[in-house]
Write a structure and sequence with these properties.
The protein has three domains: 120 residues, Phosphohistidine domain (Glucose Oxidase, domain 1, 3-Layer(bba) Sandwich), CATH 3.50.30; 148 residues, Enzyme I, Chain A, domain 2 (Orthogonal Bundle); 310 residues, TIM Barrel, CATH 3.20.20.60. Helix content is 43%, strand content 14%. The chain is built from 22 helices and 17 strands. The strands form two sheets. The chain has a nine-stranded mixed β-sheet, covered by helices on one side. An eight-stranded parallel β-barrel has the order 10-11-12-13-14-15-16-17, surrounded by six helices. Helix 8 links the parallel strand 6 and strand 7. Helix 1 packs antiparallel against helix 2, helix 1 packs across helix 6 and helix 12 crosses helix 13. The two termini are 31 Å apart. The N terminus is likely disordered. Bound molecules: phosphoenolpyruvate and magnesium ion. The site of phosphoenolpyruvate has 10 residues, from strand 11 and helix 17.
Length: 610
């Protein structure tokens, strides 16, 4: 996307960067970059305390924090320091480590003081970990072997990682934290900016190359005013999390790298623009007015009915018990997608059936009398799960993901289903036969097999429609399931043969694509008139349901429920309350009649605005 240089009204140079609009809303504040620990910055010079930005020592890279990826292994020797370190050198290095760890600990304490709830607890625990004496002792041990201070820090950390992995359970869950703290301390030793999500002293706009799901998990929506990524598509997980948090978001913003940390930017999540250095007063007023407007929509409390009184099943997408509880506190009528894999992203080992049952029961009990749809693990592709046993693939989006994990280990899904049945029994009532669906089903055999395993356990089986083969031959799948849920993120990716993570192809992975809308219509119609006379409910749980105008179109196409991030529900609900079902059908016809996604969107928006 082009970089426009314009002249600002206040006389200073102003730049507008364009990207793909993901979550609407204006935000104005200082840019804060997510730093990555870069292995290439740490490989050469002597461990001499070189200044910021210079290659600091002969140490191997600290593991990249928060990426959920396997870290670099620590080096076994350090070219930057002789193997026979003198006691003075060891003592100096020990002091450097202690000082760096103390600085990191203080920063974490400050962030903890600004946070609340679980985030505050986690940050405080990490601050304690940074000052852990056992860690310092382990570093000294490595220093005595002749390692430089950074290599010793990484090596000592990896000793604990190995130990915690062996112990498993809760200890093993601390591994990500340990490596994160290690990366921060190493960066401090090197005089480099802290890696990972930066510390926010004041509310600001988070800029990143792209965000891993684990990066976004702990974001504080009170401090992060907007998210802008140079890469990613509108259905990437950055976009999903931004919607969940209700934060304005833009992806595929080419040229973002030119924005310096601390520069003030105005983000327009509806237009997909980032203005760098705008007029302060104008930007502040615009952001404040927009916030007010968003507050108004957020004041919509349901019930979810169209203007003609037609009820709409407006459900929430969640990833854990807290998300479910938050959804229940708002106007959501239930849960249309519980992404179980996101609850386990940071787990090195598979949670036990009992642990899973506990989590599932929490989610089910958030809506004791309403629909809650749990999805079995959709591991693989952009959501790697350490314990799922998946190997590196050339083409992971077309590889072993979703229900295809059965090909590696059927026990993973079986144990999930056992846990869900157990949770349903515990919660009882309307949840005694929980709804559960399999992701990435492609052939009838998979649907038949999944349904059998669910029914054996008293569960209500469904499948996601996200592989085009299911949409095309939906009549062959319907006899086996009790419901369908269309995953428009992947359905669009596969129909358009365009990677949902690709910023270059963001215009193709747009759920307004008329070809995608036609498939949705076909699936919705098939569900309402099955060969055996049953009505099989068809919902949409992809990001399409979070777009108020597209939500109208989806209802017009015959979809019976919509599931979106909790933060999007008031916007969707408020918009739907203004239109009748008949109007939705007219809007759907307009969209289907378009040749391109942009035309479809423009035609519908123009018609709605009158
Ligand atoms: C989808 O593909 O639309 C979907 C809801 O699944 P996910 O985004 O988790 O792949
Ligand atoms: Mg999907």
């Amino acid at each position: 996307m082009p970089l426009d240089a314009q002249t600002g009204t206040a006389g200073q140079a102003r730049t507008t960067i364009r990207g793909t609009a993901v979550v609407a809303g204006l935000a104005y504040g200082p840019a804060r970059w997510v730093r990555r620990a870069d292995p290439t910055e740490t490989g050469a010079a002597a461990s001499d305390g070189s200044g910021p930005g210079s290659p600091a020592s002969g140490d191997a890279a600290a593991p990249a924090p928060n990426t959920g990826q396997a870290p670099e292994q620590p080096p076994t020797s350090d070219p930057g320091q002789a193997p026979d370190s003198t006691p003075e050198q060891v003592d100096q290095s020990r002091q450097r480590f202690v000082d760096a760890a103390a600085t990191v600990g203080e920063r974490l304490d400050r962030r903890a003081a600004l946070a609340t709830g679980v985030s505050a607890e986690v940050l405080t625990a990490n601050a304690v970990l940074a000052r852990d004496r056992g860690w310092a002792k382990a570093v000294v041990k490595e220093l005595k072997k002749g390692l430089g201070v950074e290599a010793a820090t990484v090596a000592a950390t990896e000793t604990f990682v190995a130990m915690f992995t062996k112990i498993g359970g809760r200890q093993a869950e601390r591994i990500t934290d340990l490596r994160d703290i290690c990366a921060r301390v190493v960066a401090e030793l090197q005089g480099l900016p802290e890696p990972g999500i930066p510390e926010f002293d004041e509310p600001g706009v988070l800029l990143a190359d792209d965000l891993a799901p684990a990066d976004t998990a702990g974001l504080d929506p009170d401090m992060v005013l907007a998210i802008v990524c140079e890469h990613g598509g509108p259905t990437s997980h950055t976009a999903i999390i931004a919607r969940q948090l209700g934060i304005p978001c833009i992806v595929a913003a080419a040229g973002l790298g030119d924005v310096a940390d601390g520069e003030r930017v105005l983000v327009d999540g509806a237009a997909g623009t980032v203005e760098v250095g705008p007029d302060e007063r104008v930007a502040t007023e615009a952001a404040a007015a927009d916030r007010e407007m968003r507050l108004k929509a957020a004041g919509w409390t349901g019930p979810s009915v169209l203007a003609d009184g037609h009820p709409v099943d407006l459900l929430a997408n969640v990833q854990d018990g807290d998300g479910a509880a938050a959804a229940a506190a708002g106007p959501a009528g239930g849960i249309g997608l519980f992404r179980t894999e996101l609850a386990f992203l940071d787990r090195p080992t598979e949670p036990t059936v009992d642990e899973q049952a506990e989590l599932y029961a929490q989610v089910l009990s958030a809506f004791p009398d309403a629909k809650v749809v749990t999805r079995t693990l959709d591991a693989g592709s952009d959501k790697p799960l350490a314990f799922a046993g998946m190997t590196q693939e050339e083409n992971p989006a077309l590889g072993v993901r979703g229900i295809r994990v059965d090909r590696i280990d059927r026990g993973l899904v079986d144990r999930q289903l056992d846990a869900l049945a157990e949770a349903g029994g515990r919660v009882g009532g309307a949840q005694s036969s929980p709804w559960v669906m399999a992701p990435m089903v492609a052939i009838v055999d998979e649907a038949r097999d999944f349904s059998r395993r669910c029914r054996e356990r008293g569960l209500t089986p469904g499948i996601m429609v996200e592989v085009p083969s299911v949409a095309v031959a939906v009549d062959r799948f319907l006899p086996h399931v009790d419901f369908l849920s269309i995953g428009t993120n992947d359905l669009t990716q596969y129909v358009m043969a365009a990677d949902r993570m690709s910023s270059e192809l963001a215009a193709l992975t747009d759920p307004w694509q008329p070809a995608v809308l036609r498939l949705i219509r076909a699936v919705a119609q098939a569900g309402s008139a099955t060969p055996d006379g049953r009505v099989v409910p068809v919902g949409v749980c992809g990001e399409a349901a979070a777009d108020p105008h597209l939500a109208m179109v989806l209802l017009g196409l015959g979809v019976s429920s919509l599931s979106a991030a909790s933060a999007a529900i008031p916007f969707v609900g408020a918009a739907l309350s203004e239109v009748t079902l008949e109007r939705c059908r007219e809007l759907a016809a307009l969209a289907l009649d378009a040749d391109t996604a942009a035309e479809a969107r423009a035609a519908v928006i123009a018609a709605v605005r009158g």
